[in-house]
Amino acid sequence: MQKMKKLPDAEFEIMKVAWANEPPITTNIIMQKIGNEKNWLIQSVVTLMSRLIDRGFLHTEKVGKERLYYPIVEREDYLRFETGNFIKQYHENSFINLVNTLNEDKALTDKDIDDLLEWVKERKG
Q1: Are 53 and 97 members of one domain?
Q2: How does pLDDT run across 30-81, given as a tens digit for each residue?
Q3: Which residue, 71, 91, 113, sits at the end of a domain?
Q4: By residue range, what is the domain housing residue 13?
Q5: What pTM did the predictor assign?
Q6: 10 CB contacts (<8 Å, ≥6 apart)?
Q7: Alpha helices, DSSP H only, in 1-125?
Q8: Considering only Cβ atoms within 10 Å of each terminal Cβ, which end of the chain, N or C, has fewer?
Q9: Could you tell me which of 35, 7, 19, 26 has the C-alpha nearest to residue 72?
Q10: Is residue 120 part of a domain?
């Protein structure tokens, strides 16, 4: 597989559907789950899925007149990649900078902090 790159939002939306459903998926599944709601044309979905194939995120097979799509990249692998890039780009590769930003913005609840402390204790133990 080629080097992973950040997905544009529309392609990420399609991958979220691919990861959430039992493979294979079809363009009709994409339209039912998100395409109609977003007013996408079927041709736009086909183009987006083609890009995902080119990027190495989906594999496709033709069965009769239907094209079936299978995710190649696992959800967890992509989220790990995106999170790593985000922390590197915006937080100087520092988890503490990220947590400080969340805390300053009041995005962390007391429960979040308790959960984080519990997670640290488990990791150390």
Answers
A1: no
A2: 999 999 999 999 999 999 999 999 999 999 999 999 999 999 999 999 999 9
A3: 71
A4: 9-71
A5: 0.84
A6: 48
A7: 9-20, 27-30, 42-54, 75-90, 95-104, 110-124
A8: C
A9: 19
A10: yes
